[in-house]
Design brief:
Elements (H helix, E strand, L loop, with lengths): L3 H8 L17 E4 L2 E7 L2 E2 L2 E2 L11 H23 L5 E12 L7 H16 L6 E7 L8 E9 L1
Parallel strand pairs: 5-6
Antiparallel strand pairs: 1-2, 2-7, 3-4, 5-7
């Protein structure tokens, strides 16, 4: 039976995908006490990596915001796989976001709003979080965005 958070996701038209397997030597999530650390998630959807490239060199902020939202959806998929029930989420503590950017691109926070806005839409006040939005030269698989998370679990 779907809980409150999954019902809200359905209302938003979001179906959680199967969690993406790690692409290297790490685990997708680690529960340490009440904190669930989710490894960096790429914008991988049913067709594979949804957005490659670099902000400031042809990738639009709007496309990158959609990719950031997909990263957040993948974070929730990993959380469900790790703890079994999204209603165990007490709050999103922090998102750490990386945006592939040119040296003269400065709108990383606008890009990451795609993930932040989604977390609040899906989780309400539990989705409000601290955050980093960092520009980087390159990301795995050529992705435009990667986001990791720390969630408090009941």
């Amino acid at each position: 039976m779907a809980g409150e958070i999954e019902a809200k996701l359905a209302e938003l038209g979001v179906t959680l995908p199967q969690p993406v397997a790690p692409v290297a030597n790490y685990v997708p999530a680690v529960l340490a006490g009440k904190l669930l650390h989710i490894s960096g998630q790429l914008p991988i959807g049913p067709e594979g990596l949804s957005l490659k490239g670099t902000l400031g060199a042809g990738v639009s902020v709007e496309d990158a915001q959609a990719a950031a939202k997909l990263c957040a959806i993948n974070i929730l998929a990993q959380a469900k796989a790790a703890v079994g029930d999204l209603d165990k989420i007490v709050r999103v503590v922090k998102l750490g976001a990386f945006v592939a950017s040119t040296a003269d691109f400065f709108d990383q926070p606008k890009v990451v709003n795609g993930a932040s806005d989604f977390m609040v839409a899906a989780l309400g006040d539990k989705g409000r979080h601290a955050r980093s939005a960092v520009g980087v030269a390159a990301l795995p698989l050529g992705a435009a965005v990667e986001i990791d998370a720390i969630l408090e679990i009941a």
